[in-house]
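Quick review question:
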């Protein structure tokens, strides 16, 4: 399944790279199945994915940001974020990806994941129980050895005020605006953790945003938990939302939560 997901990811990359320089990636064209505005770049990438699934006759349903659930009668579901970091792409900020994960029912049921950085071309892959790789090389989280962690944060307009308490306790802080790639930075051992805390439920993370990166992180030796410290699981449902902490070393969890 990884090879098929890799093929689809590269189709998205090639399509995005071929767009004219004056193409308006940020144009709002409709409201997606998740209730948020669909931008032109999202729709183009999703159409490529859906067409590839049909052309390859993959034995999966599809759950995607714009189309919602496409029930094709299979046990497994391909959970898709066609463009994670859509607004980065629209603003020409070089941090956005395509996220593809296959599994059953929920986040803990994900078996295979492919995440492609659409700017650098970095390819993250993971299968449950087999470890995680970047461009074919194994990656792993780092040890937590300080009370002042290097942290990634969600710092959007709906950020919870508690976030800033942790910001002040951190030695290095970044907010990139692409949850999937931020989690891979933890998986690679470049940061200790990624903290996402939205003030309202509706602005929490969705399954499509983290389905692939959660497996990459877990297979690299890290974990993702809700803000009560419980291992995070989310159903394959666009209405479900959550806040979370993604970390490398369990000692980071104890310090941050």
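Suggested answer, residue by residue:
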């Amino acid at each position: 399944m990884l090879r098929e997901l890799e093929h689809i990811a590269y189709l998205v990359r090639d399509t995005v790279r071929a767009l004219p320089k004056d193409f308006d990636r940020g144009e709002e064209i409709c409201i997606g199945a998740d209730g948020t505005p669909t931008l032109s770049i999202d729709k183009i990438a999703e159409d490529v994915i859906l067409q590839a699934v049909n052309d390859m006759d993959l034995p999966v349903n599809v759950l995607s940001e714009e189309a919602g659930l496409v029930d094709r009668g299979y046990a497994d579901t391909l959970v898709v974020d066609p463009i994670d970091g859509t607004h980065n792409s629209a603003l020409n900020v070089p941090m956005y990806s395509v996220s593809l994960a296959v599994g059953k029912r929920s986040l803990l049921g994900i078996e295979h994941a492919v995440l492609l950085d659409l700017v650098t071309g970095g390819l993250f892959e993971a299968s449950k129980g087999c470890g995680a790789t970047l461009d074919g090389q194994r990656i792993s989280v780092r040890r937590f050895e300080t009370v002042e962690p290097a942290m990634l944060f969600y710092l959007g307009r709906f950020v919870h005020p508690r976030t800033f308490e942790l910001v002040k306790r951190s030695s290095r802080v970044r907010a990139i605006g692409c949850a999937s790639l931020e989690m891979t930075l933890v998986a690679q051992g470049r940061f200790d953790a990624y903290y996402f805390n939205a003030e309202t439920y509706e602005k929490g993370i969705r399954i499509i945003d983290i389905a692939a990166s959660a497996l990459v992180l877990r297979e690299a030796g890290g974990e993702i938990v809700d803000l009560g410290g419980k291992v995070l699981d989310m159903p394959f449902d666009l209405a479900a939302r959550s806040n979370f902490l993604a970390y490398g070393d369990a000692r980071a969890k104890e310090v941050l939560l």
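Why it works: The chain has a mean pLDDT of 94. The longest strand covers residues 77-84.
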